[in-house]
Amino acid sequence: LSSMKLPSRPELFDFEGVSMIHYFTDNWEKVKNFQARPDDILISTYAKAGTTWVSYILDLLYFGNDAPERQTSQPIYTRVPFLESCFKPYFLLSGTELADNLPTSPRLIKTHLPVQLVPKSFWEQNSRIVYVARNAKDNAVSYFHFDRMNMGEPEPGDWNTFLQTFIEGKRVFGSWFDHVNGWWEKKQTYSNLLYMFYEDLVEDTGHEVAHLCSFLGLSTSVEEREKITKGVQFDAMKQNKMTNYSTIPVMDFKISPFMRKGKVGDWKSHFTVAQNEQFDEVYKQKMKNATVKFRTEI
Ligand code: A3P
């Protein structure tokens, strides 16, 4: 990781019908032709839905005991490569290179791509996929603060400006609505996909860890699961330099930390009554054919 200064914030553009920035399309040929393996586990989310949380849970489930130095010296974003990312020359390796160089198996790989842009080898290899979805309101708030502090993201503007662009699908990785619905539809025909909710993870982390184990065919002991459940709580991950992103220079934690609040319902301290009414109206329209149900409070 180089300490060079980033150029100005990237501009959004249309990429195959999805709003993107060049950091996630510069390496597209390699992404598109990426060779998945049958034992790969793809962690997929709309940005800010709990990617890091689930990445860390899976990393502990698979590698928590056999490689102590992995836990103390390797940040989660190198253990779990971000498939489409290409921040060269700031990061020396692209996501596909990091993934291809991973020494361990199974490989845990992260993506924010909408389902139609996922490299086809994942489907051909029947790789397992863990999708995490978060309710739109909290997801938007988290994304707003992330874009404020991350110079590798387009300018968010003020909260209202951000919210309007979020509604229009004009944020990186496109529309939240298309993303959660596209992946939900995929789940109906692709059986190696587990569709999880951030709200369930907050409500009962241990239950979701057990659910992950059964999906992945892991026979992790109750004691081990309890230890992991404790280690992945918000405060523990916020203190942990390997999971709190404090080692990344493009993020300004004085503006907002990566591990920000970790709550369900923080949207209530951001949405005005008018914004909430507008959002509910849009939501009703855009989700009218959707069968996936979200909780905005627990
Ligand atoms: P907030 O900004 O609402 O706090 P991602 O990893 O996909 O970028 O998602 C980041 C969001 O997940 C942030 O939400 C972050 O605080 C939250 N998060 C990460 N680890 C968490 C944990 N252990 N418990 C609860 N929330 C967590």
UniProtKB/TrEMBL annotation:
Top-level enzyme category: transferase
E.C. number(s) listed in UniProt: 2.8.2.-
Cross-referenced Gene3D superfamilies: P-loop containing nucleotide triphosphate hydrolases
Transmembrane segments: none
One Gene Ontology MF term: sulfotransferase activity
Pfam families, per the entry: Sulfotransfer_1
Domain Sulfotransferase: 38-289
Compartments, as annotated in UniProt: Cytoplasm
GO annotation terms (biological process): catecholamine metabolic process; xenobiotic metabolic process
Keywords from the UniProt entry: Catecholamine metabolism, Cytoplasm, Transferase
Gene Ontology cellular-component terms listed: cytoplasm
Family in the record: Belongs to the sulfotransferase 1 family.
Name of the protein in question: Sulfotransferase
Organism (species): Sinocyclocheilus anshuiensis
Encoding gene, per UniProt annotation: LOC107687125
